[in-house]
# Entry
Amino acid sequence: MPEEVEVGGESSVVVDVLVPVAVDVAYSYRLPPGLDAAEGDFVHVPLGTRETVGVVWSREVLGPGRGSNLKSVIGTVDLPPLPPRLRRFIDWVARWTLTPRGMVLRMAVRAPSHAGPERVRIGLRRAGPPPARLTPARIRVLDTLATLPDASKAELARAAGCSTGVIDGLIDEGTITPVVLSAEPLGGTLDPDFAAVRLEPSQKMAAGELVAAVTRRRFGTILLEGVTGAGKTEVYFEAVAAALRASRQVLITMPEIALTAQALDRFAARFGARPAEWHSAVPSRRRARVWLGVASGDVQIVIGARSSLFLPFANLGLIVVDEEHDPAYKQEDGVVYHARDMAVVRGRLEDVPVVLASATPALETRVNAEEGRYGHLVLAARVGGRSLPALAAINLRKTPPPRGSWISPPLAEAIGETIGRGEQVLLFLNRRGYAPLTLCRTCGHRFQCPNCSTWLVEHRFRNALMCHHCGHVERRPTQCPACGNADTLVPCGPGVERLTEEVEQRFPAARTLLLSSDAPGGAEHIREQLAAIARHEVDLVIGTQLVAKGHNFPSLTLVGVVDADVGLANGDPRAAERTFQMLQQVTGRAGRGDKPGRGLIQTWEPDHPVMRALVSGDGERFYRTETEMRRSAGLPPFGRLAAVIVSGGDRHAAEAHARALARAAVATIGAWRPAEQRLDVLGPAEAPLALLRGRHRFRLLVTASRAIDLQGFLRAALAAGPKARGDIRVDIDVEPQSFL
Ligand SMILES: Nc1ncnc2c1ncn2[C@@H]1O[C@H](COP(=O)(O)OP(=O)(O)OP(=O)(O)O)[C@@H](O)[C@H]1O
Ligand SMILES: [Zn+2]
# Structure
């Protein structure tokens, strides 16, 4: 019984409990006699007519007679308390993003509610002699099983390229048998000295700085910038080793799930065991175990996607944000936050160093380093004396591809040469599917998404037209729905599927592989494919941005960028920076092994500053001009930006609300803008994606000097505006990365 509660029940303990729903306040509850809960504890509380689990955010003793009108806490929950630093982080993120605190809490506590035994896995093993009748499919299954022991039925069928029926037949004959496998361990003991690499002098210097930062145990952000293939990973692994030696936990974030998978293997090679993995594709029971292990300190290292920032580390010692420039670090739905920026905040609250690693840092990060807010370590050359790939532009105006194809003669020639030498080629096109647009040759009808203002993308393998924004799918008809003519529908423009078709026609002898995030089989399948590329079981890889970053394919010597202009056309202020980073990354996959590499960039605009910077290798100049442009326009990081997106099912209602909000915001400016400072409200304007998932969208943009309290202003402006009624929704995006 808590000591503050007198037996007579005169004074009482009141706790403020934050619940994981869309509210900002923590509700007050009375602790009934006999029950105690401290700050951070999980408790059952009544909420309206139901019961929910929340977290005690604060606790106080009230004088006699007070608090008696409050509802009581129902009971405590057997989970480790949420550490105070994580609670402060949740408060911070909520304030920064203008999200109700309960929503941020929800990201942090969703996992442990799924605790329980992990589902047993059933794997297959060879059990008896081959069957009397051996078909080609059966032989494939048995061969595949020899290399994939304990595979599940679905995995084996996919890897062997047959139906599960073939496997069932082999089970019936007793050749294969299913076995129950125990849950995978969370990760073995990591050994900081398991397989240390001999670092080169420049790596050694950088690693020394990082190790010193880990040993100091103080917050500080360090940009680790090194050209592609400079060996940055090995460098930050030294910092990880230092944290392990000091018995402190490490968080390494990756922008994409496919990258975490590859990182796990590399990690195991260096530290003797795999760290824990954390992202949406990890089964929920397993995620619950990781969450609990992180809270108890048993899990030493987590490699995860952005949501891993909200894990309850008991004893964090280091955060590494790999590929820190990657736009995928921005979460665009639910709580809208930038994981790289929030990693720096978490590091500050935990008082631990944060390492941002990239070959092409975000302009913001560069400026932070130049202005001394971040430390800056540079690896100027590739390891092992390897040279960076030689880059050249292919002017599509001068040497266009033949009609109906996408590979220009110079690129085709280079591909032929490279494969002829027994080396690998990567063709990069950042467009999923077969064709980005389908139209009727007779009447000009274009297939549009019924819910979004976008064209439907043809996916030929699935025989479907799909919307990449809302997931709408329809069958590709044989007749035009507008004019009724048969066989008049034509695909326009290339996607990776169409490019693959061309490649297979033009290089029939090459072993070709299409790597796309929407292929069936998910992360595990992609991991197998990446490994097959690294083992040189493939000559020609066609891929979207999935292959652009982080990977190390030793035999790859030619990267062809099929359409370098794709990302430049939209009105995004970061379009040039993004394109530069993406092309630098993808061409940086070439020449990482023993043979030198090259990159050929197909473009209609060879004189564009981005292409010039790439080809001349003068990234510095590009960054300088971009930085000056941002500075003179007052754009981030030299000014602040927030987008307010008003949406609703009814176009007029959404527009009217956006206008009223804009008026209220403009009327609020005066009170928030000190003399000499800039604070402006622009719009509303119809969003470029005017219709998304059936909702009409209008955007306001708020721009301000750095010194302005942008969040304070937004809060005041929203409070002064009309209440959102009906299905009208107002979403705030602080420091937007997307302007759609
Ligand atoms: N000191 C070293 N000695 C030998 N090999 C090394 C050394 N450092 C790194 N390597 C190897 O060089 C390759 C490239 O290193 P790494 O992947 O760390 O580069 P990176 O800078 O992270 O590249 P990117 O930014 O392009 O992903 C890897 O195969 C790595 O194992
Ligand atoms: Zn859609």
Q: What stands out?
A: The first strand starts at residue 12 and ends at 18. Residues 651-672 form the longest helix (22 residues). The chain has five domains: 12-109, 121-181, 201-383, 386-431+494-628, 639-734.
